Amino acid sequence: MIGGIEGFFIALYIFMLAAFTGYEIIARVPVILHTPLMSGSNFVHGIVLVGCMVALGTAETLAGQVIGFLGVVLGAGNAVGGYVVTERMLEMFKASGERK
């Protein structure tokens, strides 16, 4: 296990690569596929939320507990917000009122 400042920079490097890759992938997705992509990202955020809860449960230091708590709060907010937006988008595809 790599710790200390070296571990921090490796984690920062992985985070930056993931952010860049995510941006590039989402920017190239056609608009018509945004709703299924959002549903998939909600699934991923659910996994992130579970990972944060495990990290929070096994944290031994105060810094670990604070970071785990922030991860749980942000992950839960992101997952719930994603489901709310997906639900709102799906409402837009329903037939409206009476047809003539």
Structural write-up:
With 100 residues, the protein is mainly α. The protein is built from 3 helices and no strands. Helix 2 runs antiparallel to helix 3. The protein is flat and about 60 Å long. The N and C termini lie far apart (68 Å). The mean pLDDT is 84.
Which class best fits the helix and strand makeup? Answer: mainly alpha
Order of helices and strands: HHH
**Count of individual helical segments:** 3
Q: What quaternary form is this? A: single chain
Radius of gyration: 18 Å
Major sheet, described briefly? none
**Unreliable stretches covering 5 or more consecutive residues:** none
Distance between the termini: 68 Å
Coarse shape: flat
Arithmetic mean pLDDT:
84
**Binned strand content:** under 5%
- Helix fraction bin: over 70%
The overall strand count is: 0
Question: Which features would summarize this protein structure in a list?
Answer:
single chain, mainly alpha, 3 helices, 0% strand
How would you concisely characterize the structure shown here?
The chain is an all-alpha fold. It contains three helices and no strands.
List strands and helices in order, with pairings.
Elements: H1 4-27, H2 34-58, H3 62-92
